[in-house]
Amino acid sequence: MSSAAKTETARRPHLLRAIFSHRAVWPLLALALILVVDGLISPGFFRIRIVEGRLFGNLIDILYRAMPTAVVALGMAVVIGTKGIDLSVGSIIAIVGAVISWRIHADDPHLAILFFALAVGVLCGLWNGFLVAVLDIQPIIATLILMTSGRGVGLLINLIYGGTNPSFTSPLLQGLSVGHVGLVPTRLVVGAAIFAALWLLIRRTALGLFLEAVGGNAAAARLTGVNARAVIFSAYLISGLCAAWAGVVLAADTHTSDPVSIGLYIELDAILAVVIGGGSLSGGRIYLGMTVLGALVIQALTTSILTSGLPPEYNLVVKAFVVIVVLLMQSNNLRTALYGLLPRRAR
Amino acid sequence: MNEKYLPLVATIAVFLALFGIGGALYSHFLSTLVLGDILADNAFIIIAAIGTTFVILSGGIDLSVGSMIGFVGVVIANLDAVGWHPLASAALMLAFGLAFGGLQGLIVDFCEIQPFIVTLAGLFLLRGACFMINLDAVPIHHPFVEAFSSVSVQLPGEGYLRSSALVMLAVLVVAIVIAHFTRFGSNVYAIGGDRVSAALMGVPMRRTTVGIYALGGFYSALGGVVYAFYTSSGYPLAGTGNELTAIASVVLGGTMLTGGVGLVAGTLFGGMILGLIATLINFNGSLNGAWIMISGGVLLFIFIVMQRFLVGSFKFGRTT
User: Fold this and answer.
1) Which fold has domain A27-33+66-331?
2) Does A135 sit within 8 Å of B305, measured CB to CB?
3) Taking CB atoms and an 8 Å cutoff, what residues of chain B touch A319?
4) ipTM of the complex model
5) pTM (2 d.p.)
């Protein structure tokens, strides 16, 4: 940055500068812009009605559909905070779906099945943690192993009792996924509870500090006495559990175990949510609220493409453009360069 | 022996061992026919993986490979339908791959956004573009494509090298020359080994980064061209997930994802190992696709752990 540009920046009003340098601005602007465009295209977009004793409307729908991605993204945010990454979340979801379907066909009590599902998440998390923390393998490659083989494991579990994509019903699990408590969908209530629990864990216990310390500088954290190995283990454990819960919700929603396509690309959406929320892949920071905001931006975009009448084929391209724009606006170099292009009067 | 060849030797040993296992299990497996088929069937993915090798050697990653393969095929097939010569559309797509990759590299370097995220956006963009052009598989009817497929060189035994394998071997040689005998190649290794030192030593960071991703884009576009010619069609879902196969080939080939360490030639054997596993499972007949995924993962695991303990020592020699 040239010295002239520096003084120009310094002359701007403090409030404006504070607002525009706050990390929440760009994702919030993106979300607001998407919603405004929606409101212009389809009047009544924001209307929320009560149908059959539950809330109903586009805004609720965005929250409802964003919930699995948001929960996965919360776990991802914790892992990314330790300078890691978890590519295996989609595969964990596939295994969870297969295990649920398998145990339901084996007539286990459904509450036990819920614990089995979470146990799958714990096991997968421990496996990833073992590879990263004990064998010291780079996270992207360590979790790539489970990512490539996990869906195969799901298919094999399906084969145990001879089904291809077996379907199942479970009042308990489906209640957790598509049911509602009072007016509010159950999955949103559970999602809020998961968020609150994670927030308390990260912001009100020492673990959060250790996670960010390990992500910021693992060697320094180790020297100050942080058990980096245990901290990294716990990060992948949290991510595995979050993915397992998303697996319960998604599998119960579709009533089937379809390991090939369930949760496909959810790891990419989750990573995007973290990055749109301002999390850096180089670790050291965990922004839980911003991550949820990132997941909402992604889902709002998808929903608005569907409601606007654009062909669904446009979804990926529009998503790519929004991601690129949000990211470019977060880049200091580009902001400075664009700022330099403005005529002097307008600065 | 120079320790930098250890991973390559390990990769070749694994390939030979797997080939030997196949020979012990099935008669007729140990033949140049099977070898030629593996080379031809996996040529497109190995070509793309060669480009990915440069990106990974520099410490980056390229997730847009699979979408590029699909996009190139869809464009070539749809241009064929309006009367373009396949060679003309292939040349156009190679230029596009070069430009698209270069743009990704520019964003990575100028905007300081992680390559993972930039190329992820590339993945979405190109796959979405496939869907926007055409949702159906489009055949390529031009006689040139048929002529291309019929070119082959006889190998000793009953096997032969098909045109896709020939293209792959040719561009592999080019890549080896670029990586090991040019200044650009040395710069790639320098950036991957230690970015800061490389910058301080005067490596032109922006030019090299753009060049690396442009090369990656070019090679994945070439992989797409070969795939489209080999299958004589363009399909919008083609190449889905191939970025991971490419990365796995690079890793199995002995290149470290931390960057700076590895050989381009290893990627050939890494890709062939994955192709060999799929062939073995197809020969068996009673195993299904689930086993391909699982054995791929298991092999990746064994290989990474082996690398970690056998050759990992020299990663630590470098960083501490």
Assistant:
1) ABC transporter involved in vitamin B12 uptake, BtuC (1.10.3470)
2) yes
3) 124, 128
4) 0.78
5) 0.84
